[in-house]
Design brief:
Blueprint lengths: L1 E4 L2 E4 L4 H10 L1 E4 L2 E4 L1 H10 L3 H11 L6 H14 L4 H13 L4 H16 L1
Antiparallel strand pairs: 1-2, 3-4
């Protein structure tokens, strides 16, 4: 998946480095022990269409470290030009689901969500 951020085409890669970056952003503290829960939290927030989470996911998926302000600006412009972010959310979620690194985790999270809804 490619996006043009600040006039430069950037490729988004949803690999191990992406997951590590998300884990730095989304940490969970359970009984004094911190651990990364980036992929799970990001996936949940994407399904809720949280623009800040979309910005985090895009920034973590781009090689290098684009500035958060540049990614936020890209999202603002995209939303204005496309009457919202819905299509971009769907595309990012779809592309994440194709990644050999993250697809199993996303599938498991989706199954858990469905099971919870059935109860």
């Amino acid at each position: 998946m490619k996006l043009e951020i600040k006039g430069i085409e950037k490729e988004l890669r949803f690999g191990t480095g992406f997951v590590r970056k998300l884990d730095e952003i989304y940490q969970v503290n359970m009984k004094g022990i911190e651990f990364g829960a980036g992929l799970i939290v990001a996936n949940l927030q994407l399904t809720q269409m949280n623009p800040a989470a979309l910005s985090d996911v895009i920034r973590c998926a781009v090689k290098g470290n684009p500035k958060q302000v540049d990614v936020d600006s890209f999202l603002d412009d995209y939303a204005d030009e496309n009457d919202g972010l819905k299509d971009l959310f769907e595309e990012v979620i779809s592309e994440m689901g194709k990644s050999s690194v993250v697809k199993d985790t996303m599938d498991r999270a989706e199954k858990a969500k469905v099971e919870t809804e059935e109860v």
